[in-house]
Design a protein that fits this description.
With about 180 residues, the chain is an all-alpha fold. It is about 60% helix and about 0% strand.
Length: about 180
C-alpha cells in the first residue's frame, strides 16, 4: 500500500519506525490518523495512505479476526488494496501462483515482447499468465521488476548490458532500424 506510486527506497526508509510503532493490525486500528500520517508523511499521498492504513487495519480486526486474509478477493475489499497489491501479497506472503503487474512489469513485458497490444495491467497479467508456467509467476514478477529497474530502464534501456537481446522485440526492432539506415 505504501509503495503505490512511491519508490521502494522511500518506503524502506520509513518502514522500520512504522512497524515498530504499529506491529500488528490492532495497534494500527487503534491509532489516530494524524499519528499514522507522521510516520508516513514522506511517502506519496500520505493523507490517503494514512486513512487507508487505518481503515484496512479496522476491517482486518472487525471482519477477519485480526488476520490478513489470504484470499485475493477478500484482500481487495480492504481500503487501499487493489489488484496489484493483493497479488503482491498473495505471491509473497501466501505463496500463490499469481502475477502482480506494476509499471516495471507492464513496460518490460511489452518492450521485450512477452505481451502484445496490452493496454491495461489486467490485459498484461492475462497474457503473462498464458505464457509463464503458474509456479514461476511469483518469481517472474520479481525478475521483470528487477530487469526494469536496472537494465530495461524506462527512458533509455541498457541493451548493451542485457542478456535477453536475442529474444527481445525492442532490441530486434532497433537493430533492424540501424541496419536499414546503413
Amino acid at each position: 500500500m505504501l509503495a503505490a506510486q512511491c519508490t521502494d527506497k522511500r518506503v524502506n526508509m520509513i518502514s522500520t519506525a512504522l512497524f515498530e510503532r504499529f506491529p500488528d493490525p490492532r495497534s494500527l486500528a487503534e491509532a489516530e490518523i494524524p499519528e499514522i500520517y507522521e510516520y508516513i508523511r514522506s511517502v506519496t499521498y500520505p493523507n490517503s495512505k494514512a486513512r487507508h492504513l487505518k481503515g484496512m487495519a479496522e476491517k482486518v480486526m472487525t471482519e477477519f479476526g485480526g488476520e490478513i486474509p489470504d484470499d485475493l478477493d477478500q484482500l481487495q475489499t480492504l481500503p487501499g488494496v487493489g489488484r496489484k497489491t493483493a497479488h503482491v501479497m498473495g505471491a509473497v506472503l501466501f505463496h500463490k501462483n499469481v502475477m502482480a503487474v506494476d509499471t516495471h512489469v507492464f513496460r518490460v513485458s511489452a518492450r521485450i515482447g512477452l505481451t502484445r497490444g496490452a493496454k491495461t495491467p489486467l490485459q498484461t497479467e492475462l497474457q503473462l499468465n498464458k505464457h509463464i508456467p503458474a509456479e514461476l509467476l511469483p518469481m517472474a514478477h520479481h525478475w521483470l521488476i528487477l530487469h526494469g529497474r536496472y537494465v530495461c530502464v524506462a527512458r533509455k534501456p541498457k541493451c548493451k548490458e542485457c542478456g535477453l537481446t536475442a529474444w527481445c522485440a525492442h532490441f530486434q526492432k532497433e537493430q533492424a532500424s540501424i541496419e536499414k539506415m546503413s
